[in-house]
Amino acid sequence: MAEKIMNSYETIFIIDASLEEEAVKALQEKFTNLISKNGTIDSVDEWGKRRLAYEIKDKTEGYYVLVNFKAEPEFPKELDRQYKITDGILRTIIIRKDEE
């Protein structure tokens, strides 16, 4: 049986900082749980509330979360889809990291 290919990825998602603290934590847990079910998380780095470089949806602050993880090549497309349909997510990026 063929071994599953696991790539290294990095994702940053920005949560609307005007949400209540419980809602921010719930969104963060939702995505870290989704990632851990479909791969392995190397690290989660909460940058916290930061001022945005420019307004996004009339917001000037966002709650930043950086996650480094390993997953199969098909998963980032699903993760991106989940980001797009979730209210409270302002911006996201998913980057495949080169193996060192």
**Widest beta sheet: strand line-up:** 2-3-1-4
CATH homologous superfamily placement: Ribosomal protein S6/Translation elongation factor EF1B
Architecture per CATH nomenclature, i.e. the level-2 architecture? 2-Layer Sandwich
Task: Report the biggest beta sheet as strand number plus sense, adding barrel if it closes.
Answer: 4 strands, antiparallel
Number of domains: 1
Q: Kindly provide the name of the CATH class.
A: Alpha Beta
CATH topology: Alpha-Beta Plaits
Distance from N terminus to C terminus (CA atoms, Å) equals 26 Å
As a whole number of angstroms, the C-alpha radius of gyration is 14 Å
Pattern of helices and strands:
EHEEHE
Q: How many β-strand stretches?
A: 4
* Whole-number mean pLDDT: 92
**Which ranges are low-confidence, i.e. pLDDT below 50, for 5 or more consecutive residues?**
none
Percent of residues in beta strands: over 45%
Helical fraction: 25-40%
Shape: elongated
Q: Count the helices. How many?
A: 2
- Structural class, by secondary structure, is alpha+beta
Please provide a written account of the structure.
The chain is α+β, with helices and mostly antiparallel strands. The chain has a single domain, classed as Alpha-Beta Plaits (2-Layer Sandwich). Helices cover 28% and strands 50% of the residues. It contains two helices and four strands, in the order E-H-E-E-H-E. It has helices at 21-38, 75-84, and strands spanning 7-16, 39-56, 59-71, 89-97. The chain has a four-stranded antiparallel β-sheet, covered by helices on one side. A hairpin with a 2-residue loop joins strand 2 (39-56) and strand 3 (59-71). The longest helix has 18 residues, at 21-38. It is elongated, with a radius of gyration of 14 Å. It starts with 6 loop residues before the first strand and ends with a strand. The mean pLDDT is 92.
